[in-house]
User: What shape does this take?
Amino acid sequence: TVAARPPVPRRQFTDGEEFLYLGRNYPLSIVDDGVFCFDGVVFRLPRRCLPDARQVFAGWYRKEAFRVIRGRLDKYSAASALIYDKYAVTGARSRWGSCAGRGNVSFSWRLIMAPLDVIDYVVVHELVHIEQKDHSRRFWDKVGHILPLHEQNRRWLKTNGHLLTI
Assistant: This one.
């Protein structure tokens, strides 16, 4: 029997509350003025933005996801000769990534909260789908050839994916 996961508490956006970015937790600091930013140590959220804090974070995560995932996608696409056509970042809640039709790949912005190795796993998974549409032995062999430690990253996502939320 699998134990039920405790529910993830709803974000309060309070001083000191921690938020994930690339697999690490960083504290939130509520500041009196300025603009929302992340300096590599702390997220700074102006007090006036508190009513829209969830949207502010989501917008920042979406931009970061687009930038970071695009870099990983280009790296693994070049290394594997699996060429994608279009790339998008979505608000998907139940799918980390998808590959449609003629090599159009998309990824949930929530993935930016996961460690880079986990992001790489999802990127490679979707790139391999360009060539191999199913999850056959051939598919997993190709994923493993590109990313030998894919199994541990897949497990991390299964175990911790519910935490990638705001």
Observations:
- The CA atoms of residues 85 and 103 lie 5 Å apart.
- The chain has four helices and seven strands.
- The radius of gyration is 17 Å.
- The longest strand covers residues 24-31.
